[in-house]
Amino acid sequence: MRWKRGTRSKNVEDRRGQTGRRRAARGAGLGLGGLVVVLALSLLTGQDLFSLLGGGGAMLQPPPSGGSSSPYVPSPEEEEWADLMNFLVDTIQADWHRLLPRVGGRYVDTQLVLFSGSIDSACGFAQSATGPFYCPGDRKVYIDLSFYRDLRDRFGAPGDFAQAYVLAHEIGHHIQTVLEIEGRVRELQRTNPRMRNEYSVAMELQADCLAGVWGNAANRAGMLEPGDVEEGLRAASAIGDDRIQRQVQGRVTPESFTHGSSDQRMAWLRRGLTTGDPDACDTFGEMFR
Questions:
Q1: SS3 121
Q2: How far is it, in rounded angstroms, from Cα 6 to Cα 69?
Q3: How far is C-alpha 288 from the geometric centre of its chain's CA atoms?
């Protein structure tokens, strides 16, 4: 992917090296990497930890930290990722300022918070293991850059466009908040709790599609290089619920999906990439006919 290094965005809060304090979460959803952790802990404890998330329950709590006085020193690899995020957060949002009015919306910038280890947000306390996430409470995106190492080494999805897809997906959740989709879906989940997971899947797949819409704009702007689209699709496939469940528990339980299968995630990302049209991302209309 073609991008400009050395950019510093006013829409990035660099809070790496700061330690969050544990407190209750309010309205936080799982990040892209959090599903792995919650699935594993649910199996180990015999509790349905998914029921604690997304509905005002508690975030997973880490053990108390002894605290370290050592200054945080990011690796050169992490600094490269930070440069990429600073560039992308402005590029993606500039495109949405142009794209969203086409479907009757008005885009409002979000802030990207870079953190390391743990972080406090309006949605509560989160650890790196939660994965990248969007908090509707403060309308900010949170990313611990170490997730990109996991994406490459653990999930087998390297590449700068794979990393761009992650950020674009979380900004897709911000767009859902701006368009008031997020609030309506949370209300549906409260009034029809048996459909909670189905609504969650539709939300996540729509964010994938919106990430693809931005990818289409990036391609038309000459940012994408050969192989970039494949990087994004590989990342979407790697974090499908079925693939993660098979890795963690050795079997697939579709009724517990919260993000969508690998095939679904690739299909909706591809739809956005192909059409470049936010109106093509009506996952709710297609899934609940």
A1: strand
A2: 29
A3: 23
pLDDT the model gives residue 21: 60
Q: Region 216-240: what's the mean pLDDT?
A: 96
Q: Which residue has the tokens 């370290």?
A: 68
Q: What SS3 class is residue 181?
A: helix
Amino acid at 256: S
In this structure, are strands 133-135 and 124-127 parallel, antiparallel, or unpaired? unpaired
Measured between alpha carbons, how far is 9 from 158 in angstroms, rounded to an integer?
A: 24
81: nearest Cα among 209, 167, 186, 10: 167
- pTM of the entire predicted model: 0.85
Nearest alpha carbon to residue 13 among 110, 97, 96? 110
Pairing type for strands 12-14 and 111-115 reads parallel
Asked if residue 5 is part of any domain, the answer here is no
Helix (H) or strand (E) holding 142: strand 140-144
Residue type at 224 in one-letter notation? L
Q: How far apart are CA 287 and CA 186, in angstroms?
A: 17
Structural domain including 56 reads: 12-287
Q: Among 44-48, 93-97, 130-134, 244-248, name the most confident range.
A: 93-97
Which residue shows structure tokens 């209309």? 285
Helices and strands of the chain, counted as H and E runs: 10, 6
User: Average pLDDT, stretch 264-268?
Assistant: 97
Nearest 5°: the CA angle 4, 16, 142 is 75
Asked if residue 76 belongs to a domain, the reply is yes
Tell me if 3 is assigned to some domain. no
d(CA 174, CA 250): 33
How many Cβ atoms are within 10 Å of 46's Cβ, its own excluded? 6
The verdict on residue 124 lying in a domain is yes
- Report the domain count for the chain: 1
Contact criterion met (CB below 8 Å) for 114 and 16: yes
Q: How far apart are CA 145 and CA 117, in angstroms?
A: 10
